[in-house]
Amino acid sequence: xxxxxxxxxxxVVPIAGEQVHYPVRRIFCVGRNYEAHAxxxxxxxxxxxxxxxxxxxxxxxxxxxxxxxxxxxxxCHFEAELVVAIGxxxxxxxxxKAWDLVFGLACGIDLTRRDLQYAARDKGYPWDxxxxxxxxxxxxxxxxxxxxxxxxxxSLQQNGIVRxxxxxxxxxxxxxxxxADLSRLYHLEPGDLIYTGTPSGVGPVAPGDTITVRSDDxxxxxxxxxxxx
Length: 229
Fold this sequence. Notes:
Layout: E1 12-14, E2 21-23, E3 26-31, H1 35-40, E4 51-55, E5 60-62, E6 65-69, E7 76-78, E8 80-86, E9 102-110, E10 112-113, H2 114-122, H3 128-131, E11 137-139, E12 143-144, E13 153-158, E14 161-167, H4 175-182, E15 192-195, E16 203-204, E17 210-215, E18 221-228
Parallel strand pairs: 3-15, 5-11, 6-18
Antiparallel strand pairs: 1-2, 3-4, 7-10, 7-16, 8-9, 8-15, 9-11, 9-12, 13-14, 13-17, 17-18
């Protein structure tokens, strides 16, 4: 088959301590998965099912990057998140079998053009442009085989000041529950990433900011915000 033009290969994420990389297929994200964050957004917690949205794989941004302040917004927010990398195929998986699909874990940031998200939400429109844009899915190196321990935390520092800090025990929908629910909606495959939701404390970024995300036993994430294009 002849193509009108060629496309770049799928984005990849480094795997901690290895020479091979993890190719990214799809990015699934969860909204309002911490009760305190839902409250700060002025929203109700939905305990019937996770709130899913997606980002293009082309929004992947590796840790250590310096990116331009995102276009089209004057209120871009950081959202620290645990990222789950899927390593096996799965469909209609029970929660007690969900960890079998996990390749590894990583620290991530879901950058959000909050003003565009709110404007769309207030009109009842989809808020894709608030979430899915270039370099909006920041991710650290993936720790292959990593699991969570009770009380494990995630924190985000902006210019050395802690802005977010929470335990994964506070997730409304746990990692196995998220995988089980998503696998009822999609055939999960290796290369799928799940951004599991952000704690309270989200806030705006500005040119010149340095942001760091840390979680026990996972590689830290760093990001620098450059000037607008």
